[in-house]
C-alpha cells in the first residue's frame, strides 16, 4: 500500500523611497519557485489569507512535512472552497501523508485525497494536472477505495482533445498497472510524439524503463530527453534524478543538476534545495564526502526543515 501512496506538486516589484529606486523583496511565490523555502515560510507565517495559506502548505509539502502541509491546505480550502488549485494541493498533501501513515489512517487519508482531486476537477474541468492526479489515483487505488481503471480511462478521454500527450501518458500508466508492459511502452512513445513537452515524456519513459530494470534503455531515454530543443530547465533536474535513481553515470547526473541550478529558470516542482540534496547523494555515492557535505549544507541553507538533508549531513560529517 505504501508503494501506491508513494506513486500517488513575476517580476520583482519596484519601490520608491527617499527619492531612490530599489528592488523589493521577492514575493513568497517567487521564493517558493526559486527553492528558498526558509524565506518563504518566514514571509508567509503571519499571513492568513487563502493564497498565503496555500503557498505555506506547498512550502511544507516540498519539504515532506505532510502534517503542516495538510493543516495549512485545509485552512486555504476552508477560506476559498471554490478554488480548484487549493483542492488539488490539499489532495496531494493528503495522499503523501497517507504514504507515511499506518494502514488504518492511510485508507481514510487516501479517500480524502480522492475527494479533493474530484472536487478540483469538478470546479475546473480544464485543469489538466488535477485530472492527471485523479487518473493516477483511480489507476493505483483498489476498488474499495474508489479506484478503477475504467475511471482512469474516462479521465484520459477528457484530456485527449486539449492535451493528447497527457492522455497517452494516462493510458501508459493504465497499461503498466495491468502489467501490459509492451502496451505501456507503446503508449509512452506515442505520448512523446504528441506531447507539448517531449523531453518530459522521454523522462517519463526513462522512469518506466528504470522500474522495469531496463537500465540501458533508461539511460538512452534520458539522453533523448536532453537532446530535445527548447526543453524547460526542469528537465535537467529530472534527468539527473533519474540517473541517480537508476545508479547510472553519476558525473552526468551532477552536471545536469548543476545546469538546472545555474539556469535562472528554477521552478517549484523542482526545488533548488532538492537539487542540492540529490547532488549530495551522488557525491556520497562516488565517495566524495566533503563535496557531499557541502551540497547537504547548501540544501539546508534553503530549507532547514528538510529532514533527509540533515540526516545525510550527519552521516557524512
Structure summary:
The chain has a domain at 1-124: Alpha Horseshoe (Serine Threonine Protein Phosphatase 5, Tetratricopeptide repeat). Helices cover 71% and strands 3% of the residues.
Could you please describe the fold and organization of this structure?
The chain has a domain at about 1-125: Tetratricopeptide repeat domain (Serine Threonine Protein Phosphatase 5, Tetratricopeptide repeat). The chain has about 325 residues and is mostly helical. A hairpin with a 2-residue loop joins strand 1 and strand 2. It has 18 helices and 2 strands. Helices cover about 70% and strands about 5% of the residues. The protein has helices at about 1-5, 30-35, 35-45, 50-60, 65-80, 85-100, 105-125, 130-140, 150-160, 165-175, 180-195, 200-210, 215-225, 235-245, 250-260, 270-285, 290-300, 305-315; strands spanning about 15, 20-25. A two-stranded antiparallel ribbon has the order 1-2. The model is unreliable at about 1-5 and about 10-25 (pLDDT under 50).
Task: Please tell me the overall pLDDT.
Answer: 92
The radius of gyration is 20 Å
Q: Kindly report the CATH topology of the domain at 1-124.
A: Serine Threonine Protein Phosphatase 5, Tetratricopeptide repeat
Structural class: mainly alpha
**Helicity level:** over 70%
Number of helices: 18
Order of helices and strands: HEEHHHHHHHHHHHHHHHHH
Main β sheet profile: 2 strands, antiparallel
CATH architecture of the domain at 1-124: Alpha Horseshoe
- How many beta strands in the DSSP annotation? 2
The CATH superfamily of the domain at 1-124 turns out to be Tetratricopeptide repeat domain
Give the termini separation. Answer: 35 Å
CATH class of the domain at 1-124: Mainly Alpha
Amino acid at each position: 500500500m505504501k508503494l501506491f501512496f508513494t506513486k500517488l506538486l513575476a517580476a520583482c516589484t519596484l519601490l520608491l523611497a527617499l527619492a531612490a529606486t530599489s528592488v523589493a523583496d521577492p514575493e513568497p511565490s517567487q521564493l517558493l519557485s526559486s527553492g528558498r523555502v526558509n524565506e518563504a515560510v518566514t514571509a508567509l507565517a503571519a499571513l492568513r489569507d487563502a493564497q498565503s495559506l496555500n503557498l505555506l502548505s506547498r512550502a511544507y509539502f516540498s519539504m515532506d512535512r505532510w502534517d503542516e502541509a495538510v493543516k495549512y491546505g485545509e485552512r486555504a480550502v476552508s477560506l476559498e472552497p471554490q478554488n480548484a488549485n487549493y483542492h488539488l494541493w490539499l489532495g496531494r498533501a493528503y495522499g503523501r501523508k497517507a504514504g507515511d501513515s499506518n494502514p488504518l489512517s492511510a485508507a481514510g487519508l487516501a479517500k480524502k485525497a480522492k475527494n479533493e482531486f474530484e472536487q478540483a476537477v469538478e470546479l475546473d474541468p480544464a485543469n489538466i494536472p488535477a485530472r492527471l492526479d485523479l487518473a493516477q489515483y483511480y489507476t493505483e487505488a483498489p476498488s474499495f477505495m474508489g479506484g478503477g481503471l475504467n475511471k482512469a480511462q474516462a479521465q484520459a478521454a477528457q484530456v485527449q482533445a486539449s492535451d493528447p500527450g497527457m492522455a497517452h501518458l494516462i493510458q501508459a500508466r493504465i497499461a503498466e498497472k495491468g502489467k501490459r508492459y509492451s502496451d505501456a511502452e507503446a503508449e509512452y512513445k506515442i505520448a512523446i510524439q504528441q506531447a507539448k513537452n517531449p523531453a518530459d515524456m522521454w523522462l517519463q519513459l526513462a522512469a518506466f524503463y528504470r522500474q522495469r530494470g531496463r537500465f540501458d534503455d533508461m539511460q538512452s531515454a534520458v539522453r533523448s530527453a536532453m537532446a530535445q530543443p527548447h526543453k524547460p530547465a526542469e528537465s535537467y533536474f529530472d534527468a539527473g534524478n533519474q540517473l541517480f535513481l537508476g545508479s547510472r553515470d553519476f558525473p552526468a547526473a551532477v552536471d545536469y543538476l548543476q545546469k538546472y541550478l545555474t539556469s535562472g529558470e528554477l521552478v517549484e516542482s523542482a526545488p533548488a534545495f532538492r537539487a542540492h540534496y540529490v547532488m549530495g547523494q551522488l557525491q556520497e555515492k562516488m565517495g566524495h564526502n566533503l563535496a557531499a557535505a557541502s551540497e547537504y549544507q547548501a540544501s539546508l541553507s534553503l530549507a532547514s526543515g528538510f529532514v533527509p538533508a540533515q540526516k545525510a549531513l550527519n552521516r557524512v560529517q
